[in-house]
Write a structure and sequence with these properties.
By secondary structure, the protein is of the alpha+beta class. It is 32% helix and 32% strand. Strands 1, 2, 3, 4, 5, 6, 7 and 8 form an 8-stranded mixed beta sheet that branches. Strand 4 and strand 5 form a beta hairpin. It is globular. This is Adenylate/guanylate cyclase domain-containing protein.
Amino acid sequence: MDGLGNKGALVPVEGTIVFALVAAQVQTGQALSLLAAGIAAQRQLLSRAAALVQPPQGRVVERQGDGLLLLFADPHAALSWAQASQALCPAEPGHPTSATLALRIGAHHGQVLSDGSALFGHGVNLAARIAAVAGPGETLLSAPTQAQASPAWRALLEDLGPYYLKHFDEPQQLFKLGPSPALRMTGTA
């Protein structure tokens, strides 16, 4: 993957677009010091997840508030990153962020437009909408992503059926990535 294209000119780029959003529980009336600590934990989680992106197979396109927009060369790189990133949020009893922080990840493989610093088009919107319907700790994929994934990755996917997503007229077939400690450790799928 050679980046996002030339600065300024819109060029088509094919890859797996990934949105990762922090799902955080915030309690109404929470003290500002606790809210600040929660935001610091979110930033740390996103920084750790962004550090897992391995160029040239992947690239952090944008980091805003509680989310990341990423572009990967293929579903293998995207799904490897997703599993490693989900592992950053273990459920540890007694840990202050274990029950409150998780990632919601959405992925779509397809063609988008790039001006060298940002991504545009249907694929970006679809990845964002998929992430929005993912539950805390879930990685959901579009049908094109599932179709491009290797058989080893497809074996870990659960067909969730069609979903109606905001601003999409037709339902989108979604798949949920199941956990696999062996794949997370070896990255051999």
